[in-house]
Amino acid sequence: MLRSTTGRVASALHRSSRQFQRPFSISKTLLALGAGTGRRTLRPQASSFPRSLTSRTPYSTTAPDATPSPKDLSDEEALARIDQVPSMGDVFRQVPKKDLSRITSAYLLICEVMLYLARPGENAPAYLSMFTNAAVPPDSEIGRARKALFDITKLATELLSAVPDSAALKNEYAPVFGLSGALDACFLAYEGPGKHGDEDLQEWTKFWSRAQPIVLEMAVMLDGMSDKVMKGIP
């Protein structure tokens, strides 16, 4: 039953992540975010942020039954979609047992992060600046997105960490595991949004400024291996 559930989850993520490949590639997604493929943190685009993003509380908490392209979802629907992924964490952690399937699941989760951040299209760099730097209530759109993407990225890192050092894939995907180790260090230094009191924004900004370029680089790397990686769907 659990394995069947994981297969459905992975397949659903895979269907939506197809746009992440051809004709919707990682490089195009990075261009939407205003980034290259090297490690760099996107700089703030503006000194003030629209109130609609920093204070709005989405009215929808239910994702649609179908699996439409994330770029076609409303802001509320897209947020509901990423909100529910962390709740599947136990399913992802327990199965799959195969090392390649862990890498595949981590890749699909990283796709979710990238697709969500790139949704605003030409406004993605400005949105990413707000996502990194804006002071927002925890229940605002950005506040909830921070929590969801933090949890999704951490889950992807946990899946990669579960691959034993003795596994042959550890050498084949050595650069990916190197980046995963760098993300592990970020998570050791930061417990998550809402857990640092008065210094929460400062600590979030510090964390995401370090983690974001690593996530981008990992996405590029895994996408370059996608033909092999996607063979691990449980």
Fold topology:
Layout: H1 2-17, H2 26-33, H3 51-54, H4 75-84, H5 89-94, H6 99-118, H7 124-133, H8 141-161, H9 168-172, H10 174-189, H11 200-224, H12 226-229
Helix pairs in contact: 1-6, 2-6, 4-8, 6-8, 6-11, 8-10, 10-11
Word description of this protein:
The chain has 234 residues and is mostly helical. It has one domain. It has 12 helices and no strands. It is globular, with a radius of gyration of 17 Å. It starts with a helix and ends in a 5-residue tail after the last helix. The N terminus is likely disordered.
Structural descriptors:
about 230 residues; mainly alpha; disordered N terminus
pLDDT below 50 for ≥5 consecutive residues: which ranges?
1-29, 32-67
Main beta sheet = none
Taken in chain order, the helices and strands follow as HHHHHHHHHHHH
**Estimated share of beta-strand residues:** under 5%
Classify the helix fraction into a percent range: 55-70%
Whole-angstrom Rg:
17 Å
Ends distance: 13 Å
CA-based shape: globular
